[in-house]
Amino acid sequence: MGDSAHTEIPLITDFSRYSPENTEPADAAAVFRADVLAIADDLSGAAEAAAALLPGCRSARIELPASTEPLAAHNTQHDGRPALAVADLDCRNAPGAEAERSVHATLAARPAAKAFLKIDSLLRGNVRSMLAAARPTVLAPALPPAGRTVHNGVLHVNGRPLHRSGQWSAESAAPAATIAEALAPQRCRVITLDVVRSGRLRETVRDCLEAGEIPLCDGETDADLDAVVAACADLPGVRLAGSGGLASALGRAMPEVDGYGIEAPDSAHGLLFVIGTAEAASAEQVRRLATRGVQQIPLDVPVLLAQHDESDRIARALRHSPVAVTLQSPHGVNPAHSREIVRRLAETAARAVRSADRPVDLVLTGGETARRVLDALGMDELVPLTQIHHGAVRSRTRGGTSVVTRPGSFGDADSLVRIAEHLRPATEG
């Protein structure tokens, strides 16, 4: 799971404060009028959560605080319509204790907000430590649109248990066989599908919380996740944790408000795709993108690590057509070097953007790649606008350019083509 040894820290709300006398049904509608705080461990996940929650909020922003910066206190809501703040804590690869402190501090800055903890749908990163800081928490990690379901407390990917799926091939460790094992020593109780789909879910969740356990909800459909949100909506002090599937269920439960208009992308901007993912599907996605007039510039990993600067080449290409920057490494990539490779890639992309002869819109695949590129460009905030397809989210920068983020493992073969067509409805190149 990427966690270091569990470190105890003071929690905002812990199980000792969750008592039966405080669990009577409240006004669920009032819950959904509260401001919403979503916390994610990487940027693509933060954007995914923002897109899911955006329709129910009067305003939204994705915050990119440095690890040393405290999150600013959020303004209160106006006219009964909630505001959404999504914090990318950039802690997927951080030590577990650091991730736990970051979640704790972020929640402390927004004590009145309805909090949602966005975790990776493949359970990568510091899931255990993040949940420890957010308790009492109800966990429902299924993501049905991506074929990620939970049965008897085991995450499955397209029907295969996670630990047998090969989805962690780029990680330095192997996934646990069960979610409860991954969260140990915290105690979990699996809530099976028959209970999720019964009228006993709220009572069962409450019993788990009173016993000091994390309710771990099975799920295979959006309706299962909707049931979890409905059962927990008015349980005081309880936070929901899950993937983008649960974020979408929470968004569906929130009354939709009239949002702000979404301005069209500016076709006069340059367009740069930065493909930082090691997913095998990305090669076909880039191949199809190239058939639409996008120039591919592959960067050789050993040359990149040797600090050979290709940014001028990229900037020159951007004058004539959209560009897709990819990584090539015929002999594979040592996982120990992956973070340095991403950093070099991000710095190269940022230099190309800064030296381009016009503003540049960005499409960034892979959460760490996206965050490193925006860090290199000095960006600390995005305004989410719309979701192009599941997980592919378009946001606006302060300078008026577009940034599309997408998890590396998401999207079919036409994913990048669909993103290009959204950003440039009139075909370029």
Question: What do these coordinates show?
Answer:
- The chain has 429 residues and is of the alpha/beta class.
- The protein has 2 domains: 239 residues, 3-Layer(aba) Sandwich (Rossmann fold), CATH 3.40.50.10840; 154 residues, Four-carbon acid sugar kinase, nucleotide binding domain (Molybdenum Cofactor Biosythetic Enzyme, Chain A), CATH 3.40.980.20.
- 32% of the residues lie in helices and 21% in strands.
- The chain is built from 15 helices and 18 strands.
- The strands form 3 sheets. Strands 5-11-4-1-3-2-16-17-18-15-12-14-13 form a 13-stranded mixed beta sheet, with helices on both faces. The chain has a 3-stranded antiparallel beta sheet with strand order 6-7-8, with no helix packed on it.
- The protein starts with 27 loop residues before the first helix and ends in a 6-residue tail after the last helix.
- About 6% of the residues have low confidence.
| Average of per-residue pLDDT values | 87
**Straight-line N-to-C gap:** 43 Å
CATH fold title of the largest domain: Rossmann fold
Structural class: alpha/beta
In the CATH scheme, the class of the largest domain would be: Alpha Beta
Largest sheet: 13 strands, mixed
Strand arrangement in the largest pleated sheet: 5-11-4-1-3-2-16-17-18-15-12-14-13
Total helical elements: 15
Describe the oligomeric state of these chains in a short phrase: single chain
CATH architecture of the largest domain: 3-Layer(aba) Sandwich
* Beta content: 15-25%
CATH superfamily of the largest domain: Putative sugar-binding, N-terminal domain
* Low-pLDDT regions: 4-17, 20-29
